[in-house]
Design a protein that fits this description.
It is built from 17 helices and two strands. The protein is mostly helical and about 350 residues long.
Length: about 350
């Protein structure tokens, strides 16, 4: 079925930053790029206002016409495509730095492959493509030179973009009747989008958890400063919780309050790095109860107390055990979520 310019423009206007018009025209690589970058960071989407008729013309070509019109040699160099390769490579590398930097061999394998994937995605837009193997090889060779640097996505992306431009070629024409069904195409695009967004979503959730944990500790510490003036402590608590109380009034309170407490408990359930270290110091598992924490602390304190242990590092070890116990004790504070 022939594609319509009016339909393409309508999809461009309604869901252009999400690549709906490219999905309609069968340009899946372009659609995926727009999904991951919100229309090429907005600039690519705006530029396409004058490019859509050409895209529709390409989509409406049959196999024979496509063979006649496509160039036989390498396609001409496009400065816009090259800039897009560099920018998207940096973008993919930055996302990897945010969400995957805790993985082993990150700077040697994960980061260069992420940058290379971004560069190759831009290289594969439209009727062009490049040599994926050479692009990845360039990234893997360049990455160790800038090992550990937060700016490493820039030189890696630049080197990969130059390699992709040098190895650019025209895609082979589609065989007659090779139109793919929408379902499998959406499935592949969904998997690619999930692979890109899942690490980033985990990082955002993890940082949100840590932030909530930090704010909770700050509020509790602030209120504990006024233990000697209970009335002042209650006033401060009321003021600090005023936005939440207003929300309860608007939404009906009651069940919402209990639901919110449960959400907070789930969010704050994950141990921070400091608490993980404290668990290791006290030789405890993550599921240890307050009674187990106290028992382990007392046993270790008896063993390492300077009055009973003559070794040189007894005092330092005892202080470390005491600090670990205080860290875990704060986590199990009964009124933390009230």
């Amino acid at each position: 079925m022939a594609k319509s310019v009016m339909v393409a423009y309508a999809l461009w206007a309604v869901g252009g930053p999400l690549g709906l018009h490219h999905l309609y025209l069968g340009r899946d690589s372009h659609a995926l790029l727009w999904m991951l970058t919100l229309g090429g960071f907005g600039f690519g989407w705006a530029r396409e206002f004058i490019r859509i008729p050409a895209y529709v013309g390409e989509a409406n070509q049959d196999g024979e016409t496509e063979r006649k019109t496509r160039p036989t040699g390498p396609p001409p160099v496009s400065p816009i495509r090259f800039v897009g390769q560099v920018c998207v490579g940096i973008y993919f590398g930055t996302v990897a730095l945010i969400g995957l930097n805790s993985l082993s061999f990150f700077y040697l394998i994960v980061l260069p492959l992420s940058v290379g994937a971004g560069v190759h995605l831009v290289s594969s837009i439209g009727q062009q493509t490049s040599d994926l193997q050479k692009t990845f090889t360039t990234c893997l060779i360049t990455s160790p030179i800038f090992y550990g640097s937060t700016l490493s996505p820039l030189p890696i992306s630049l080197a990969a973009s130059i390699t992709a431009a040098q190895n650019r070629r025209v895609k082979p024409p589609r065989p007659p009747g090779s139109t793919q069904k929408l379902g499998p195409r959406l499935y592949r695009l969904g998997l690619a989008w999930l692979a890109f967004s899942a690490p980033l979503a985990y990082c955002i959730f993890h940082n949100t958890t840590a932030t909530l944990y930090y704010l909770s500790d700050c509020v509790a510490a602030l209120l504990d400063m006024f233990w000697f003036l209970p009335w002042l402590r209650n006033v401060l608590e009321y003021i600090l919780l005023m936005p939440y109380r207003l929300l309860c009034v608007i939404t009906g309170g009651g069940a919402y309050e209990e639901a919110w407490k449960k959400v907070l408990e789930i969010l704050l359930k994950e141990y921070t790095e400091k608490e993980k270290e404290a668990l290791q110091v006290l030789s405890l598992e993550a599921e240890a109860s307050l009674e187990e924490i106290t028992h382990s602390y007392r046993e270790l304190a008896k063993t390492w107390h300077p009055d009973h242990n003559p070794s040189k590092d007894a005092e330092a070890t005892f202080l470390k055990i005491k600090e670990a116990y205080e860290v875990l004790l704060r986590r199990h504070r009964p009124h933390r979520f009230k």
